[in-house]
Amino acid sequence: MPMPGGGGAAGAARRPPSGEAAAARDEEQQEEEGEEDLRDGGVPFFVNRGGLPVDEPTWERMWRHVGRIHPEGERVAQRIRGAADLPKVAYSNEDKLPRVIGFLSCILPSQLILSNSSKIPIPSVPAFQPSTPIPERLEAVQRYIRELQYNHTGTQFFEIKKSRPLTGLMDLAKEMTKEALPIKCLEAVILGIYLTNNMTTLDRFPISFKTHFSGNYFRHIVLGVNFGGRYGALGISRREELMYKAPVFRTLSELIFDFEEAYRRCWHTLKKVKLGHCVSHDPHSVEQIEWKHSILDLDKLTREDFRKELERHARDMRLKIGKGTGPPSPTKDRKKDVSSPQRGQASPHRRNSRGDRRPSGEKKPTDSKAMPDLNGYQIRV
């Protein structure tokens, strides 16, 4: 949920008006909770909160989005919505699938447009033999994520609340594999965790990026991985170079610098990196994912300090893994009175609230319990 318009770095000479500062704080809080409609480089995108099948208000909002962004505007929506010969196939949302086909055909890239005789491709969830090497498994997981396709519809189909326990997010990931709909980057991270839970020698942790381009801020997230001391990433993006990274990087800083260079090739300036701790492999854990253990503001760090902070975070993760995290995390079986929050209920207590976070380059104490003139043109990543 990037902030619309440009914004000076913290501590800049010009202080934003109080109203603008309050709006920035609200947007940051919304991002943290993952519970509000987001903005992508100043362009709003929405979250489907009604579940599947898509309800009528959400459906109409999606079509209005088509009218705003498609070169033919409302005409293309009217033409497809009035078509009577769209294909029907057996699917969990069969009653609305022909409409979904029509919608995707006008919103997705041209190579994905489906003809009337087309079958909707349903990717197969990867299955592995015990002898399959971890790098090959990661390639298969990334291939599956890629086959789901990036969601260009302007509406995120699955509502992801970052404060939910891991068990609830894994239930949601299972639903993603059943529905096989296009996904955005946060959904890809949850799906990546779900599909690598049985790879117990693989460490997984979230990596979030905030970049600036042409007066707007953009945010992106991937799932960092560490296998055998080599770092990589899983995820999805509009840009090929901002998603999958094979586990070949010797240090965490090498991985992050590679992402930074990829952003630079897209004319984006990396502003902030947020790193989480390793995610449990227990799909029934009621612990929350720690999304932002380290928050690194590049405007406040020298290059060398940035590298040192990245390596300090890597050491913290190794120490946490080496020492363990205390007693086994509670599960559905061992703690019946704890369950995933349902829509409308209050989220569980967040371990890393805004008050707990420290400025750039600092870390929260470990919990004892646990170029050319491109103005006016947007390159969305």
From TrEMBL:
Residues 1-10 have a biased composition (Gly residues). GO terms for biological process: regulation of angiogenesis. Residues 1-49, 315-381 are annotated as: Disordered. Residues 11-22 have a biased composition (Low complexity). Residues 353-367 have a biased composition (Basic and acidic residues). Residues 28-38 have a biased composition (Acidic residues). It holds the Pfam family Vasohibin. GO terms for cellular component: cytoplasm. It comes from the Eukaryota. The active site is at residues 185, 220, 237. This is Vasohibin 1. It comes from Calidris pygmaea.
